[in-house]
Protein backbone atom coordinates (compact mmCIF):
# COMPACT_ATOMS: atom_id res chain seq x y z
CA UNK A 1 0.00 0.00 0.00
CA UNK A 2 2.82 2.43 0.80
CA UNK A 3 5.76 0.92 -1.11
CA UNK A 4 7.18 2.19 -4.41
CA UNK A 5 9.51 1.07 -7.18
CA UNK A 6 11.13 -2.38 -7.19
CA UNK A 7 9.92 -3.22 -3.68
CA UNK A 8 6.29 -2.60 -4.71
CA UNK A 9 6.76 -4.69 -7.87
CA UNK A 10 8.29 -7.49 -5.76
CA UNK A 11 5.33 -7.45 -3.34
CA UNK A 12 2.77 -7.37 -6.15
CA UNK A 13 4.41 -10.35 -7.88
CA UNK A 14 4.43 -12.35 -4.63
CA UNK A 15 0.74 -11.74 -3.97
CA UNK A 16 -0.73 -11.97 -7.48
CA UNK A 17 -1.14 -15.79 -7.82
CA UNK A 18 -3.28 -15.98 -4.68
CA UNK A 19 -5.86 -13.59 -6.16
CA UNK A 20 -6.42 -15.41 -9.45
CA UNK A 21 -9.92 -15.82 -10.88
CA UNK A 22 -9.94 -19.53 -9.98
CA UNK A 23 -9.18 -18.78 -6.33
CA UNK A 24 -11.77 -16.02 -6.07
CA UNK A 25 -14.49 -18.12 -7.70
CA UNK A 26 -14.18 -20.92 -5.11
CA UNK A 27 -16.80 -20.13 -2.45
CA UNK A 28 -16.57 -23.44 -0.61
CA UNK A 29 -14.30 -22.28 2.23
CA UNK A 30 -15.96 -18.91 2.68
CA UNK A 31 -19.46 -20.42 2.76
CA UNK A 32 -18.52 -22.40 5.89
CA UNK A 33 -17.70 -19.20 7.76
CA UNK A 34 -20.92 -17.55 6.57
CA UNK A 35 -22.89 -20.50 7.96
CA UNK A 36 -21.10 -19.97 11.29
CA UNK A 37 -22.15 -16.31 11.09
CA UNK A 38 -25.80 -17.24 10.55
CA UNK A 39 -25.68 -19.72 13.43
CA UNK A 40 -24.28 -17.02 15.73
CA UNK A 41 -26.91 -14.51 14.59
CA UNK A 42 -29.77 -16.98 15.07
CA UNK A 43 -29.38 -16.61 18.84
CA UNK A 44 -30.49 -12.99 18.38
CA UNK A 45 -33.51 -13.66 16.15
CA UNK A 46 -36.25 -11.15 16.98
CA UNK A 47 -33.88 -9.22 19.23
CA UNK A 48 -31.84 -6.04 18.91
CA UNK A 49 -28.22 -6.66 17.94
CA UNK A 50 -25.22 -4.79 16.56
CA UNK A 51 -24.03 -6.61 13.43
CA UNK A 52 -20.62 -4.93 13.36
CA UNK A 53 -18.74 -7.31 15.73
CA UNK A 54 -20.24 -10.33 13.94
CA UNK A 55 -19.02 -9.10 10.56
CA UNK A 56 -15.59 -8.36 12.03
CA UNK A 57 -15.37 -11.96 13.26
CA UNK A 58 -16.57 -13.30 9.90
CA UNK A 59 -13.85 -11.35 8.14
CA UNK A 60 -11.26 -12.49 10.70
CA UNK A 61 -12.17 -16.16 10.30
CA UNK A 62 -12.20 -16.08 6.49
CA UNK A 63 -9.09 -13.92 6.12
CA UNK A 64 -6.98 -16.01 8.53
CA UNK A 65 -7.89 -19.19 6.63
CA UNK A 66 -7.13 -17.48 3.32
CA UNK A 67 -3.83 -16.01 4.55
CA UNK A 68 -2.54 -18.73 6.90
CA UNK A 69 -4.37 -21.91 5.94
CA UNK A 70 -6.30 -22.19 9.22
CA UNK A 71 -9.08 -20.11 10.69
CA UNK A 72 -9.33 -18.48 14.11
CA UNK A 73 -12.88 -19.86 14.36
CA UNK A 74 -14.00 -16.79 16.29
CA UNK A 75 -17.64 -17.40 15.28
CA UNK A 76 -17.56 -20.98 16.54
CA UNK A 77 -18.04 -22.11 20.16
CA UNK A 78 -14.31 -22.91 20.41
CA UNK A 79 -11.99 -20.35 18.78
CA UNK A 80 -8.56 -21.80 17.97
CA UNK A 81 -6.64 -18.64 18.90
CA UNK A 82 -7.19 -15.58 21.08
CA UNK A 83 -9.11 -13.91 18.28
CA UNK A 84 -10.99 -11.42 20.44
CA UNK A 85 -7.79 -10.02 21.98
CA UNK A 86 -6.27 -9.70 18.52
CA UNK A 87 -9.33 -7.90 17.14
CA UNK A 88 -9.30 -5.42 20.01
CA UNK A 89 -5.58 -4.76 19.57
CA UNK A 90 -5.91 -4.53 15.80
CA UNK A 91 -8.80 -2.04 15.96
CA UNK A 92 -7.05 0.10 18.58
CA UNK A 93 -3.81 0.06 16.61
CA UNK A 94 -5.67 1.10 13.46
CA UNK A 95 -7.28 4.01 15.27
CA UNK A 96 -3.89 5.10 16.59
CA UNK A 97 -2.29 5.00 13.15
CA UNK A 98 -5.22 7.02 11.77
CA UNK A 99 -4.61 9.76 14.32
CA UNK A 100 -0.87 9.77 13.61
CA UNK A 101 -1.54 10.11 9.88
CA UNK A 102 -3.87 13.06 10.46
CA UNK A 103 -1.31 14.99 12.54
CA UNK A 104 2.10 13.54 11.54
CA UNK A 105 4.05 16.62 12.67
CA UNK A 106 2.89 16.03 16.26
CA UNK A 107 3.73 12.33 16.46
CA UNK A 108 6.70 13.06 18.70
CA UNK A 109 4.21 14.07 21.40
CA UNK A 110 2.45 10.70 21.27
CA UNK A 111 2.80 8.75 24.53
CA UNK A 112 0.09 6.13 24.12
CA UNK A 113 1.55 2.93 25.56
CA UNK A 114 -1.59 0.97 24.72
CA UNK A 115 -1.09 1.84 21.03
CA UNK A 116 2.39 0.30 20.98
CA UNK A 117 1.21 -2.74 22.96
CA UNK A 118 -1.61 -3.20 20.44
CA UNK A 119 0.79 -3.03 17.49
CA UNK A 120 3.11 -5.56 19.16
CA UNK A 121 0.21 -7.91 19.94
CA UNK A 122 -1.12 -7.74 16.37
CA UNK A 123 2.30 -8.49 14.93
CA UNK A 124 2.86 -11.33 17.40
CA UNK A 125 -0.51 -12.79 16.38
CA UNK A 126 0.51 -12.84 12.71
CA UNK A 127 3.94 -14.26 13.57
CA UNK A 128 2.23 -17.04 15.52
CA UNK A 129 -0.03 -17.80 12.56
CA UNK A 130 2.96 -17.95 10.21
CA UNK A 131 4.80 -20.30 12.58
CA UNK A 132 1.74 -22.53 12.90
CA UNK A 133 1.20 -22.57 9.13
CA UNK A 134 4.83 -23.52 8.58
CA UNK A 135 4.71 -26.26 11.20
CA UNK A 136 1.48 -27.76 9.85
CA UNK A 137 3.08 -28.22 6.41
CA UNK A 138 5.74 -30.46 7.98
CA UNK A 139 3.27 -32.77 9.73
CA UNK A 140 2.86 -36.28 8.20
CA UNK A 141 -0.93 -35.88 8.12
CA UNK A 142 -0.76 -32.53 6.26
CA UNK A 143 -3.01 -32.31 3.22
CA UNK A 144 -2.51 -29.67 0.57
CA UNK A 145 -5.49 -27.23 0.64
CA UNK A 146 -7.65 -27.08 -2.46
CA UNK A 147 -7.17 -23.28 -2.46
CA UNK A 148 -3.85 -21.46 -2.44
CA UNK A 149 -2.78 -20.24 0.98
CA UNK A 150 -0.89 -16.95 0.91
CA UNK A 151 1.51 -17.85 3.75
CA UNK A 152 2.45 -21.07 1.93
CA UNK A 153 2.88 -19.22 -1.37
CA UNK A 154 5.16 -16.65 0.22
CA UNK A 155 7.19 -19.31 2.03
CA UNK A 156 7.76 -21.09 -1.28
CA UNK A 157 9.11 -17.90 -2.88
CA UNK A 158 11.20 -16.39 -0.08
CA UNK A 159 12.94 -17.54 3.09
CA UNK A 160 12.93 -14.04 4.55
CA UNK A 161 10.72 -14.51 7.63
CA UNK A 162 10.38 -10.75 8.24
CA UNK A 163 9.34 -10.22 4.63
CA UNK A 164 6.65 -12.89 4.91
CA UNK A 165 5.23 -11.37 8.11
CA UNK A 166 5.29 -7.85 6.62
CA UNK A 167 3.57 -9.00 3.42
CA UNK A 168 0.84 -10.77 5.39
CA UNK A 169 0.27 -7.77 7.67
CA UNK A 170 0.02 -5.58 4.57
CA UNK A 171 -2.60 -7.85 3.00
CA UNK A 172 -4.55 -8.39 6.22
CA UNK A 173 -5.90 -4.81 6.23
CA UNK A 174 -7.72 -5.05 2.86
CA UNK A 175 -8.53 -8.76 3.31
CA UNK A 176 -10.23 -8.13 6.65
CA UNK A 177 -11.50 -4.56 6.57
CA UNK A 178 -12.81 -4.39 3.00
CA UNK A 179 -15.31 -7.13 3.89
CA UNK A 180 -16.12 -6.27 7.52
CA UNK A 181 -16.55 -2.54 6.94
CA UNK A 182 -18.56 -2.98 3.74
CA UNK A 183 -20.97 -5.50 5.29
CA UNK A 184 -21.55 -3.28 8.33
CA UNK A 185 -22.20 -0.25 6.14
CA UNK A 186 -24.50 -2.13 3.76
CA UNK A 187 -26.77 -3.34 6.56
CA UNK A 188 -26.60 0.08 8.21
CA UNK A 189 -28.31 1.44 5.09
CA UNK A 190 -30.56 -1.54 4.36
CA UNK A 191 -32.05 -1.33 7.85
CA UNK A 192 -33.06 2.27 7.11
CA UNK A 193 -34.54 1.52 3.67
CA UNK A 194 -37.07 -1.34 3.96
CA UNK A 195 -38.24 -0.91 0.35
CA UNK A 196 -34.69 -1.42 -0.90
CA UNK A 197 -34.32 -4.45 1.36
CA UNK A 198 -37.54 -5.96 0.02
CA UNK A 199 -36.43 -5.43 -3.60
CA UNK A 200 -33.03 -6.95 -2.89
CA UNK A 201 -34.62 -9.92 -1.12
CA UNK A 202 -36.83 -10.66 -4.14
CA UNK A 203 -33.72 -10.78 -6.33
CA UNK A 204 -31.87 -13.02 -3.87
CA UNK A 205 -34.80 -15.41 -3.41
CA UNK A 206 -35.07 -15.77 -7.19
CA UNK A 207 -31.56 -17.29 -7.19
CA UNK A 208 -32.82 -20.42 -5.45
CA UNK A 209 -30.89 -22.54 -2.91
CA UNK A 210 -27.58 -21.01 -1.87
CA UNK A 211 -25.78 -24.27 -2.65
CA UNK A 212 -26.25 -23.41 -6.34
CA UNK A 213 -24.76 -19.92 -6.06
CA UNK A 214 -21.58 -19.26 -8.01
CA UNK A 215 -19.25 -16.36 -8.60
CA UNK A 216 -20.89 -15.74 -11.98
CA UNK A 217 -24.46 -15.86 -10.62
CA UNK A 218 -23.65 -13.39 -7.85
CA UNK A 219 -22.14 -10.99 -10.39
CA UNK A 220 -25.35 -11.27 -12.42
CA UNK A 221 -27.44 -9.91 -9.50
CA UNK A 222 -27.71 -6.32 -10.69
CA UNK A 223 -29.62 -4.93 -7.72
CA UNK A 224 -27.18 -6.56 -5.30
CA UNK A 225 -24.34 -4.91 -7.21
CA UNK A 226 -26.18 -1.58 -7.13
CA UNK A 227 -26.60 -1.80 -3.34
CA UNK A 228 -22.92 -2.67 -2.93
CA UNK A 229 -21.69 0.07 -5.30
CA UNK A 230 -23.85 2.72 -3.67
CA UNK A 231 -22.51 1.81 -0.24
CA UNK A 232 -18.91 1.92 -1.46
CA UNK A 233 -19.67 5.27 -3.11
CA UNK A 234 -21.16 6.97 -0.07
CA UNK A 235 -19.06 5.22 2.58
CA UNK A 236 -15.81 3.95 1.04
CA UNK A 237 -13.73 1.77 3.37
CA UNK A 238 -10.68 3.90 2.56
CA UNK A 239 -11.85 7.52 2.61
CA UNK A 240 -8.61 9.11 1.50
CA UNK A 241 -5.07 8.31 0.41
CA UNK A 242 -1.84 10.27 0.82
CA UNK A 243 1.17 10.20 -1.50
CA UNK A 244 4.52 12.03 -1.31
CA UNK A 245 6.13 13.41 -4.48
CA UNK A 246 9.50 11.66 -4.87
CA UNK A 247 10.74 14.31 -7.33
CA UNK A 248 9.71 17.66 -8.78
CA UNK A 249 6.93 17.07 -11.28
CA UNK A 250 4.03 18.73 -13.09
CA UNK A 251 0.45 17.50 -13.07
CA UNK A 252 -1.42 18.18 -16.34
CA UNK A 253 -4.45 19.75 -14.65
CA UNK A 254 -5.45 21.17 -11.29
CA UNK A 255 -3.89 24.61 -11.58
CA UNK A 256 -5.33 28.03 -12.43
CA UNK A 257 -8.65 29.51 -11.47
CA UNK A 258 -10.62 26.84 -13.26
CA UNK A 259 -8.28 23.96 -12.24
CA UNK A 260 -7.64 23.04 -15.88
CA UNK A 261 -4.06 24.35 -16.12
CA UNK A 262 -0.88 22.42 -15.24
CA UNK A 263 0.28 22.63 -11.63
CA UNK A 264 3.83 22.29 -10.31
CA UNK A 265 4.38 19.78 -7.47
CA UNK A 266 7.62 20.14 -5.53
CA UNK A 267 9.55 17.11 -4.30
CA UNK A 268 8.40 16.17 -0.80
CA UNK A 269 4.89 17.58 -1.23
CA UNK A 270 2.17 15.47 0.39
CA UNK A 271 -0.81 15.01 -1.94
CA UNK A 272 -4.13 13.83 -0.53
CA UNK A 273 -6.77 12.15 -2.66
CA UNK A 274 -10.20 12.17 -1.02
CA UNK A 275 -12.37 9.37 -2.36
CA UNK A 276 -15.02 10.48 0.13
CA UNK A 277 -15.24 13.91 -1.51
CA UNK A 278 -14.94 12.55 -5.06
CA UNK A 279 -17.87 10.20 -4.55
CA UNK A 280 -20.08 13.06 -3.33
CA UNK A 281 -19.39 15.68 -6.01
CA UNK A 282 -22.78 16.97 -7.27
CA UNK A 283 -21.36 17.54 -10.77
CA UNK A 284 -20.65 13.80 -10.98
CA UNK A 285 -23.47 12.27 -8.95
CA UNK A 286 -26.29 14.84 -9.10
CA UNK A 287 -27.79 17.16 -6.52
CA UNK A 288 -28.71 14.20 -4.30
CA UNK A 289 -25.10 12.97 -4.20
CA UNK A 290 -25.25 12.69 -0.39
CA UNK A 291 -28.30 10.38 -0.48
CA UNK A 292 -27.97 6.58 -0.43
CA UNK A 293 -29.97 5.50 -3.49
CA UNK A 294 -28.96 2.21 -5.22
CA UNK A 295 -31.23 2.94 -8.17
CA UNK A 296 -28.72 5.51 -9.46
CA UNK A 297 -26.60 2.53 -10.56
CA UNK A 298 -29.32 0.96 -12.69
CA UNK A 299 -30.31 1.82 -16.23
CA UNK A 300 -33.97 2.27 -17.04
CA UNK A 301 -35.69 -1.06 -16.46
CA UNK A 302 -33.08 -2.18 -13.95
CA UNK A 303 -31.64 -4.92 -16.14
CA UNK A 304 -28.19 -3.36 -16.59
CA UNK A 305 -25.79 -1.36 -14.44
CA UNK A 306 -25.09 2.24 -15.35
CA UNK A 307 -21.54 2.75 -16.58
CA UNK A 308 -19.80 5.53 -14.68
CA UNK A 309 -17.04 7.68 -16.07
CA UNK A 310 -13.52 6.38 -15.50
CA UNK A 311 -11.81 7.70 -12.34
CA UNK A 312 -15.05 8.95 -10.80
CA UNK A 313 -15.68 5.83 -8.64
CA UNK A 314 -12.55 4.58 -6.85
CA UNK A 315 -13.39 2.56 -3.71
CA UNK A 316 -10.43 0.29 -4.49
CA UNK A 317 -8.17 2.84 -6.13
CA UNK A 318 -7.27 2.59 -9.81
CA UNK A 319 -4.55 2.02 -12.37
CA UNK A 320 -1.70 -0.46 -11.88
CA UNK A 321 -1.95 -0.07 -8.09
CA UNK A 322 -5.64 -0.91 -7.86
CA UNK A 323 -6.35 -3.10 -4.83
CA UNK A 324 -5.26 -6.62 -5.73
CA UNK A 325 -8.00 -8.12 -3.55
CA UNK A 326 -10.89 -6.12 -5.04
CA UNK A 327 -12.70 -9.02 -6.71
CA UNK A 328 -12.23 -11.24 -3.66
CA UNK A 329 -13.76 -8.58 -1.40
CA UNK A 330 -16.69 -7.95 -3.75
CA UNK A 331 -17.41 -11.67 -4.06
CA UNK A 332 -17.31 -12.24 -0.29
CA UNK A 333 -19.52 -9.22 0.36
CA UNK A 334 -22.06 -10.33 -2.26
CA UNK A 335 -22.26 -13.89 -0.90
CA UNK A 336 -22.59 -12.82 2.75
CA UNK A 337 -25.23 -10.18 1.98
CA UNK A 338 -27.17 -12.71 -0.08
CA UNK A 339 -27.19 -15.33 2.66
CA UNK A 340 -28.23 -12.90 5.43
CA UNK A 341 -30.98 -11.42 3.26
CA UNK A 342 -32.15 -14.90 2.33
CA UNK A 343 -32.33 -15.85 6.02
CA UNK A 344 -34.20 -12.75 7.29
CA UNK A 345 -37.52 -11.37 6.12
CA UNK A 346 -36.67 -7.94 7.49
CA UNK A 347 -33.75 -6.14 9.12
CA UNK A 348 -35.16 -3.21 11.10
CA UNK A 349 -33.18 -0.21 12.32
CA UNK A 350 -32.76 -0.01 16.09
CA UNK A 351 -30.27 2.85 16.18
CA UNK A 352 -31.55 6.08 17.83
CA UNK A 353 -29.10 8.01 15.61
CA UNK A 354 -30.33 7.92 12.00
CA UNK A 355 -27.34 9.48 10.22
CA UNK A 356 -24.09 7.67 9.44
CA UNK A 357 -21.41 8.74 11.94
CA UNK A 358 -17.87 8.17 10.68
CA UNK A 359 -14.98 6.91 12.77
CA UNK A 360 -11.73 7.53 10.93
CA UNK A 361 -8.95 5.01 11.47
CA UNK A 362 -6.85 3.62 8.63
CA UNK A 363 -10.29 2.75 7.31
CA UNK A 364 -13.52 4.73 7.71
CA UNK A 365 -16.05 2.75 9.74
CA UNK A 366 -19.47 3.32 11.25
CA UNK A 367 -18.92 4.57 14.80
CA UNK A 368 -22.44 3.36 15.68
CA UNK A 369 -22.06 -0.01 13.98
CA UNK A 370 -25.25 -1.47 12.50
CA UNK A 371 -27.83 -1.79 15.27
CA UNK A 372 -30.81 -3.75 13.99
CA UNK A 373 -33.62 -6.14 14.84
CA UNK A 374 -33.45 -9.40 12.88
CA UNK A 375 -36.82 -10.76 11.72
CA UNK A 376 -36.37 -14.34 10.45
CA UNK A 377 -38.11 -15.56 7.32
What does it look like?
The protein is mainly alpha-helical and 377 residues long. It is 50% helix and 11% strand. The protein is built from 14 helices and nine strands. The protein has helices spanning 5-15, 21-25, 28-42, 52-68, 83-102, 113-138, 150-157, 161-190, 194-205, 215-219, 222-234, 275-278, 282-285, 326-343; strands at residues 48-50, 240-244, 249-255, 261-265, 270-274, 344-349, 358-360, 364-366, 371-376. Strands 1-9-6 form a three-stranded antiparallel sheet. Helix 3 runs parallel beside helix 14. The radius of gyration is 21 Å and the shape is globular. The two termini are 42 Å apart.
Q: Can you give keywords for this protein?
A:
three-stranded antiparallel beta sheet, 377 residues, mainly alpha, two-stranded antiparallel ribbon, 9 strands
Amino acid sequence: MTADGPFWAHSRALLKPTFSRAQISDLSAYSVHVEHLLAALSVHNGLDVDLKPFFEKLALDSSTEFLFGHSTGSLTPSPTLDAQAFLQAYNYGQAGIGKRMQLPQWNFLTRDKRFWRSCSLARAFVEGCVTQASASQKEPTYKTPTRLVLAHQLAAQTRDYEDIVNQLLNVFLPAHDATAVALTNIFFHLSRHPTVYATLRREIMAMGPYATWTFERLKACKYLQAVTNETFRLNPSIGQMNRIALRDTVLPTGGGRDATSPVFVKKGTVLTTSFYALHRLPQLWGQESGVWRPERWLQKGGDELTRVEHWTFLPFGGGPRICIGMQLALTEVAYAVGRVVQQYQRVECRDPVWDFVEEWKLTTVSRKGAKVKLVPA
